[in-house]
């Protein structure tokens, strides 16, 4: 209850730091984050195919930025970066390009449940949530019920800061705050309907605590965004969407990892070493896979239900060796699962459309989940 207001507040707080680059996605499509869009580097409202293409292009760019930042950090002198992570002092050095990047997504389940691109969204967000914090990149995800479909476990398990506003039951409570929270007395379901903006918060310090967010209605939020726009403009910190510079949806390199894997594991080959796969992928699309190693491959295929296995092979000098690799059959099975999900979604939408046309003349309303008598 109130997650969109809280997400908008967190994004506006991020906008108050003129260094911060904000990416805001309103997958509900109602424009609730439009005030943030005034100063955001990337902003989109909706879940149509062009919106999905826009978001994927942005996430691919962010993954590339993640790799660039890792290289910058790796090459910095230890006296400037002793802990191998971005600090506020390093973020102040504009030439390094290590400014804070904050990505906020409302109704994030729309990404992860997408019948075609859900796996890629999961792949990108898993990498960002795991490696992003040390590199000055933060991912904020909001959803009503973070089960394994709405918020994949590889992402939720690495979500260190969690806010839980009022929820209806124990299960939802523990989904957000962690298993066993309800038994320990951390119970967001006991919040009253009047407790708008009040949440249980975990992740900072050893104990969970109740916090209250600041209430900003749409008019106040928009006035604040206008002020922030002027301050950023004066500081020369407006970029991307805030300057009216909109990349065309899908301008980033479009690729299908599963299809590329079939190229890297050619027909007639049952399984291939991971190191050989990433080498072939790098030749195929150097801008996408150029810096991948076996570890990145293993993380990228996991969201599709593919796991690396032991593969016996022969090295260049003729010696036998057992190394991690991928089975072609597993890639084909993952493609079949994806295609089946896509077909199922199409069938459901078609049935819903036909049902609506049949019953509408009789004054019967068709809801998102049921047919009302």
Task: Explain how this protein is built.
- Helix 10 (257-264) packs across helix 11 and helix 10 packs antiparallel against helix 14 (328-359).
- The chain contains 14 helices and ten strands.
- Helices cover 43% and strands 14% of the residues.
- The protein has two domains: 3-161 and 203-243, P-loop containing nucleotide triphosphate hydrolases (Rossmann fold); 256-373, no CATH class.
- It is globular and about 70 Å long.
- This is DNA segregation ATPase FtsK/SpoIIIE, S-DNA-T family.
- InterPro entries: FtsK/SpoIIIE/SftA (IPR050206), P-loop_NTPase (IPR027417).
In the CATH hierarchy, the architecture of the largest domain is: 3-Layer(aba) Sandwich
The gyration radius over C-alpha positions equals 23 Å
The unreliable regions are: 368-373
The N- to C-terminal Cα distance equals 28 Å
* Total domains: 2
Could you give me the name of the CATH homologous superfamily of the largest domain? P-loop containing nucleotide triphosphate hydrolases
Organism: Actinacidiphila alni
Protein name: DNA segregation ATPase FtsK/SpoIIIE, S-DNA-T family
Keywords:
373 residues, alpha/beta, Rossmann fold, 2 domains, four-stranded parallel sheet, three-stranded antiparallel sheet, 14 helices, 10 strands, disordered C terminus, FtsK/SpoIIIE/SftA
């Amino acid at each position: 209850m109130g997650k969109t207001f809280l997400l908008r507040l967190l994004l506006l707080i991020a906008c108050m730091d003129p260094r911060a680059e904000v990416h805001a996605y309103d997958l509900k499509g109602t424009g609730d984050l439009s005030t943030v869009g005034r100063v955001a580097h990337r902003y989109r409202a909706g879940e149509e195919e062009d919106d999905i293409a826009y978001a994927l292009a942005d996430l691919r760019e962010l993954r590339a930025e993640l790799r660039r930042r890792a290289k910058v950090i790796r090459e910095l002198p230890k006296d400037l970066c002793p802990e191998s992570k971005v600090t506020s002092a390093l973020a102040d050095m504009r030439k390094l390009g290590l400014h804070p990047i904050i990505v906020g997504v409302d109704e994030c389940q729309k990404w992860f449940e997408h019948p075609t691109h859900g796996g890629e969204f999961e792949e990108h967000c898993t990498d960002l949530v795991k490696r992003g914090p040390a590199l000055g990149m933060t991912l904020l995800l909001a959803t009503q019920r973070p089960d394994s479909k709405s918020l994949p476990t590889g992402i939720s398990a690495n979500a260190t800061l969690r806010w839980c506003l009022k929820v209806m039951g124990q299960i939802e409570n523990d989904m957000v705050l962690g298993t066993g929270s309800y038994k320990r007395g951390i119970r967001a379901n006991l919040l009253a309907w009047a407790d708008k903006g009040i949440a249980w918060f975990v992740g900072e310090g050893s104990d969970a605590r109740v916090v209250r967010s600041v209430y900003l209605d749409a008019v106040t939020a928009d006035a604040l965004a206008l002020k922030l726009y002027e301050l950023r403009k004066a500081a020369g910190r407006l970029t991307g969407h805030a300057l009216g510079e909109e990349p065309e949806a899908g301008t980033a390199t479009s690729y299908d990892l599963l299809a590329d894997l079939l190229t890297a594991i050619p027909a007639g080959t049952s399984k291939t070493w991971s190191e050989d796969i990433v080498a072939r992928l790098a030749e195929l699309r150097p801008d996408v896979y150029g810096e991948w190693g076996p570890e990145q491959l293993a993380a990228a295929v996991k969201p599709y239900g593919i796991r690396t296995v032991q593969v016996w092979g022969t090295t260049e000098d003729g010696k036998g060796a057992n190394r991690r690799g991928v089975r072609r059959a597993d890639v084909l099975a993952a493609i079949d699962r994806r295609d089946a999900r896509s077909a199922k979604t199409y069938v459901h939408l078609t049935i819903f459309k036909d049902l609506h046309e049949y019953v509408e003349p009789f004054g019967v309303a068709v809801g998102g989940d049921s047919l009302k008598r």
